[in-house]
TrEMBL record:
Superkingdom of source: Bacteria
Region named Disordered: 496-518
Gene Ontology terms, MF aspect: 3'-5' DNA helicase activity; ATP binding; DNA binding; hydrolase activity
InterPro entries in alphabetical order: DNA_helicase_UvrD-like_C (IPR014017), DNA_helicase_UvrD/REP (IPR000212), P-loop_NTPase (IPR027417)
Protein name per the record: ATP-dependent helicase
Amino acid sequence: MPSTALRPTPEQVAAVEAFLAGKDLKLVAVAGSGKTTTLRLMAEANPKARLLYLAFNRAIRDEARAKMPPNVSVQTLHGLVFGEVVRPDPAFRAKFEAGNGQVRAYHIREALDIGVVEAYVVKATLENFLRSNLARPHPSMVPPQYREALRRKARDYQGALNEILEATRQLWERMQDPSDPFPLSHDGYVKLWAMAGASLPPVDGLLVDEAQDLSPVFVGVLEKAQSQRVYVGDPAQQIYAWRGAINAMDALGGEERRLSWSFRFGPELASLVEGFWSRVNRRLPLEGKAAWSTQVRVFGPSPVDLPVAVLCRTNAGVVQAALSLGVHRFHVQGGVEEVAHLLEDAEALRQGAPRPNPHPDLVLLESWKELEALAQELKDPTAGILVRLASRYGDLSVLAGFLRRAHGPQDQAPVVFSTAHKAKGREWPRVVLWEDFPPVWRHEEREGLKEKGLDLREEENLLYVAMTRAMKELYLHPPLDELLPDLDELLPMELGEPVEEGGPKAVHLGEGGPKEAGEGPASLLARLLLLLDRVGSREDVPEDLRREAQALGQEAWQRLA
């Protein structure tokens, strides 16, 4: 073994030895287990081998380029194909640049002369087809939520489904035509490459990171490669089924090895995760090997240091968390515009004037009444949160304005809000998991998710990804507290501002508000708004007082914005 700054773990040693024996490998690596380090050890152990490291995105590529030895060439999967298909062809370059690598709903509306809803359905179906390894569109490529909507609304379900598939086929034909102005997307040029008999560079070995997120089209190409193949990934972090990724680790060949030691967190969090997997009848061996302990607590009357990351299941959950916690300076991972647009589009729906290109979460809805039905009958989390926000705060577009003004750079924000999807690949010293994660260990919740056509495994994986972003402290908001045994009665709480001088410090999160935080105007206003919110939503308060509190709260929010 080559010398490294840290001694390799027994699992890493076994993986390197299997690589040196020329075996195709499938490394199942848990969160924080040193995947890149393991691949570097392999490359250093055989310096004469010409290796190609294929990364899932630019961030992983840049990290690998900084760490890999000279015998390793590093590219993103899409970057490799772009150089083969688009860069050398002026016509395809023009088609790619026309949409900046994307096909949007308005491109489809213009191409097919169809309505907004139909365009979004065709767009999602086209994306799933392009990422598949099939030559023709198939009904399974129409996303489940759209198929359910068609069953409810279409007089001729099969006929409507066939129209979507035919529209998808037409767009694929136009995408392949160099003389047609219809845009060529990233997934489109990968599909072209695969169907034209894709070939990989002549190297001795392929190192494929984040292999769990490979689309079927990439799996098909990589499995035909003549080089030695090493796939590294975590099946439990596969959270992109909605965009065509499959559980690729199951579909890939190779001798399985494991990296089960996580250096991100301690044994306390590892125990929580293993307990969660046990509740949903899954098993993923995991050991917390960080040099520190990781405290796991209920998001209750405990002191919490700032800064902190608050992770949510949905964009609507990000809004709810930001408002509920009374924070007036924060950062939203990935930017605030997507969340703000969701609020503005929901308000337009509430006013009976839907906007022409609504947020994808609302595209199938024609009225606020439909959104309320979605919340009540199907228990949709996004719809439910939007209904509650409108009831408590009134005009949702006012909330969008508040979010835009409160959002700032991450290095200046005491609180970071993020969805679990956007948190993947990140880590924070302390993390709060918000209440909109579904309790997927409950039988009734699992049955409800199945009825809505949602992927149970992906919901489980999202919660795992969120839990494993924490390094030193993890706080579970009810109902996630059920994952911990022997809990005392919980109290509601909010986050307070850190004292400006001396940096972030512990603040008490309890009914009385932040005890050690600065009691400036922003903090007092946040507590007042939260008090009005609580009074206005409690059923044991007389109705006239509830209405008055709701009205005062709405007026206060409008003045604040």
